[in-house]
Amino acid sequence: MEVLAVAFSLALIFLTLLFIWRRSSNGGANLPPGSFGWPVLGESIEFLFGKPEKFVGDRMKKYSEEIFKTKILGEKTAVICGPNGHKFLFSNEQKLFTIFRPHPMQYLFRSYQNKSAAPPPQAPLADETKAIRQPGFFKPEALMRYLGAMDSITQRQLQIHCTDKTVVEVHPVAKTITLSLACQFFLGINNPERIARLVKYFDEVTVGMHSIMLNLPGTIFYRANKAAAAIRKELITLIKEKKQGMATGAPMQDILSHMIVVTDPSGKSMPEAEIADKIMGLLTAGYSTVATTITFLMKYVGLNPDVYEKVRAEQMEIAALKKAGELLEWEDMAKMKYSWNVICETMRLVPPLQGTFREVLTDFNYAGYTIPKGWKVYWTVTTTNMNPEYFKDPEKFNPSRYDEGEAPPPYTYVPFGGGPRMCPGKEYARLAMLAFIHNVVKDYKWEVIDPNEKVEGDMMPEPQKGLPIRLYHL
């Protein structure tokens, strides 16, 4: 009896505290509808392990198609939905919002900072892309010089992984190809053995970026932290090698070389630890999303023979005008219109990145509700991609929907974001994916072995078995 009474008392105390917490968390403001979930954890479990797109879709139906509140990854968050939400967010960057990295990302990519010291008020975290926006590494004239290397690396990797093979797992191959491209572009290295060592580490980091921060053996975050340390060690070694090479007059045509020589207004160079962390962030961004899109591109093209034939016809027309050994040129990319439509349709059905976060700089009102300063805003492409109001037969893979006259309404298809925060690597990603599709359809036809293979992952989707395909050499 006494045990039962104690248990009842503890339950009553817990429920009372939960009620007080829920009331105090509202703060009297006219907050959006929704729920903060459980104390401490909030709704993070449902968000991470119930698929973010389902998490958002279910709550749009339950609370509002425009906005709802939640608590995920330790933050009170407003999820702004639909094309109006996209437009509002893109139009108010650095006015109402600033960039925010979830705490696991801060920990993994900010090892050079003192984690025990709180950042000064309203001081946004440094942005990895700031170091590369100004020199123009992603501008067409810079990418133009890199396109030939992108083409040759893709050719070589396809030969390594597909020649004399009848069955190939697409996802591991796509990851190796995209990491090879990223290492050449960002680091100026083309060492297959070195790159192969890094692939498994980047996989762990990618999964750990959006996870519950529990740094205990066996947890997702623990594995990500160990992997980040291994990548950081390799990058520090590379930075020292790069400095030695630059001292002897080696060319500086990659982003790492720029980061080594760049200085702040006082003339101070960036510390090696900071360079390593920023480069790791850039490599992760340039690796995982492109690999994901290439993987599902192979799936949908393999499942749609008519699409494959159109893509191959377009690419063979380009190849026919080239001499033996001649690489892709800038003018060729403009001729790949249908192939780009195929890539766009792939990203609509399987967004390579589910969403990103912003921090609220000042109280603002949206859709009749108040969003307090300090809250986070979660932005996701999935609130429009599968909406039949914007995309006819949204479940159907139909690359022709992007032809002139059939383009989706503004702010309904935004795989690279928009406004000042549009992904700076959009053009890089476009070229990498087009170079891949050009080379793969020239030499191969394929059949998807398991069309119903389960898709895993939370923020970064991936096929459970790696998408095995049966290759036919042409």
TrEMBL record:
GO cellular-component term (any): membrane
PROSITE patterns registered for this protein in UniProt: CYTOCHROME_P450
This protein's UniProt keywords: Heme, Iron, Membrane, Metal-binding, Monooxygenase, Oxidoreductase, Transmembrane, Transmembrane helix
Amino acids binding heme: 423
Cofactor: heme
Pfam families for the chain: p450 (PF00067)
Organism: Buddleja alternifolia
Any GO molecular function: oxidoreductase activity, acting on paired donors, with incorporation or reduction of molecular oxygen, reduced flavin or flavoprotein as one donor, and incorporation of one atom of oxygen
Name by which UniProt lists this protein: Cytochrome P450
Subcellular location: Membrane
GO biological processes: sterol metabolic process
Family: Belongs to the cytochrome P450 family.
Membrane disposition: Single-pass membrane protein
